[in-house]
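Batch manifest, entry 17 of 40.
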Amino acid sequence: MSEEATGIRWGGCTHTGRFRKNNEDAFLALTVSAQEVRYLGKTGKASLTEEDFVFAVSDGMGGAKAGEFASKIAVDRITKLFPRSFLSSAQGFQRNFEDLIPELFDQIHSEITWLGILYEDCRGMGATLSLCWVTPGWVYFGHLGDSRIYYLPAGGGMQQVTHDHTHAGWLRRSGKIGEREERTHPTGHQLNQVLGGGVKNIETQVGAIGYEPGDRFLLCTDGLVAGHWDRGLEEYLRGADFDDPKLADKLVETAVRVSGRDNTTAVLFEPGNGG
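Output type: structure tokens
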């Protein structure tokens, strides 16, 4: 990548929705280096030359406020556990994303499960998690649940790179149903992979995307998907002004206005530009 193409721009927003009393969604934006980990603001731009970036969204589930607790555990533990693994890698232990990301998910899964066993109010709580680790030239991702990561190449169509861990999601990936049928399918919200939630063994989806300047990414919870068709998300992502401080807010507010039945969260980022 050329010197002028080593920056990153981002924006994030979460909303309770029109009918829920509390927000069980959470999102995270931070930088990681061999020296420190640092939280980022809701919007911003920075250089990718000396630090890596981590973005994540999580959607909690459970009675009372257990879902809110679960999603906050998920993003909080990323802040504590990811830098530890990153530093091991930086110090020459040859850790790669295919080892580091599943280990991170396993540790969060164990903690949420254990808290659900220890405390009755947390029984059965769980959380989705979709995470992107951004380095110069590459985005590594990990995923469980039905939150999503979308990738829009500058010169191509948008791709949903994560799998919805539901039977309806499998049917759509298999070509048996379409986007509209998936939304109304009776198994659409029955998760078979999630952090905690009584799931015995998790199988974290892990992948890597080599990006070019102008490529864009979107992480979101299912509340955002409920208010936008994929075509609308692609149009917004392609035309988005990443210098707009309301970058993510506008996308979320539209989803809440159209649907609003669920908590709604989006994080958008463009690596390779704007440092």
